[in-house]
Specification:
There is one protein chain. The protein is built from 7 helices and 2 strands; from the N terminus they run H-H-H-H-E-E-H-H-H. By secondary structure, the chain is mostly helical. Helix 2 packs antiparallel against helix 3 and helix 4 packs antiparallel against helix 5.
Length: 164
């Protein structure tokens, strides 16, 4: 299999892109389930794009650095992925009165991009583990509703403080 991938490097890249899109899509499933606009397709595309930028940066680095004379640092593109995803994440956070919505979706977008980058550099096990962990965090912690319980406790505490 490894010889096949060395002979046909585009196959490996296509498999990386498919894996990144699938893992990002898994995170988006939970967002769809809770009725968020950014869901499976959005997360799959973010992870796919981050993977593609990472593959391009590392491939360009190898090609340019082999020709000599010019040095190319692939981490510069990776840092721009993080900045760009931060901009997208910022767009999904809204304030309604005293409530802030969209933070979990924004952070999930950020994690989806990181998973795509991990696939892009070939850290498949890391990407799969991160996907499982993020999916569990999204699902299990939402199910426990710790944030809702803390908010009720805080409001009750404020109400009690006003009575005293």
């Amino acid at each position: 299999m490894e010889e096949f991938l060395i002979t046909y490097p585009w196959i490996k890249i296509v498999l990386q892109l498919l894996l990144a899109a699938a893992l990002g899509g898994i995170l988006g499933v939970e967002r769809n389930y809770v009725g968020k606009d950014a869901g499976t397709r959005t997360f799959a595309l973010i992870s796919l794009g981050a993977c593609l930028f990472t593959v391009i940066s590392f491939s360009a680095s190898q090609t340019i650095n082999m020709t000599g004379g010019i040095s190319f640092d692939p981490s510069r593109i990776a840092s721009q992925i993080v900045a760009g995803i931060g901009f997208i994440g910022m767009a999904v956070i809204f304030r309604r009165g005293s409530d802030i919505e969209g933070v979990t979706t924004a952070v999930s977008i950020w994690v989806s991009a990181a998973i795509g980058m991990a696939v892009g550099v070939g850290f498949y096990t890391l990407a799969i583990c991160a996907t499982v962990i993020a999916f569990l965090i999204q699902g299990i912690l939402r199910g426990l509703d710790l944030e809702g319980k803390l908010e009720k406790w805080h409001k009750q505490r404020q109400k009690n403080a006003k009575k005293s």
